[in-house]
Hints:
This protein has 176 residues and is mainly α. The protein has helices at residues 3-24, 39-51, 65-79, 83-96, 101-113, 117-130, 136-151, 155-167.
Amino acid sequence: MSNRAVRLRSWMALAGVAALLAACSPPNPSRPEPPLPSNAQMVQAIRAAGASDKSVINVHPLRDPGVTSLRDAAISNELAGQYAQAAQHLDEALKMSPDAPDLLQDRAEVAVYLGDYAMAGQLAHRSWSLGPKLGPLCERNWQTIVELDLHARDAVSAASARKQVAACHKADIPRF
């Protein structure tokens, strides 16, 4: 065998070994997914959407004093980090006033704290369907959906829900 043939075989063997090693190496790591926001961060974003609205539409319903008392207790429980108790108080309030959009949204936010995302989505949709469809409550409804979609890593649905958040704003009539 000639020297040239030996070198050619050596290069071919080396190329074969390199191909085998390349096949055995782990795949290129893709970019890791960004971490999901915490439940508290999700609720903070939901409430910020409603708080930032300077819409001319802002509905404040008159309510039964018993419902107000239960809602106040739920707020106290939530501030103390007692989300299960807050949920119980809001559930009792909803028994007394089952179609109150603001109570439904409050309960949706507590469901997010508890990690019950399916319930949170259902409650936010129901709140929106019964609510004014404009103003801060509407923005909280749709921001809940945005946060749930982002948590599910569904960017397309989140973008669609963001458009709904923007549609909740009703600007004031310019006065001269």
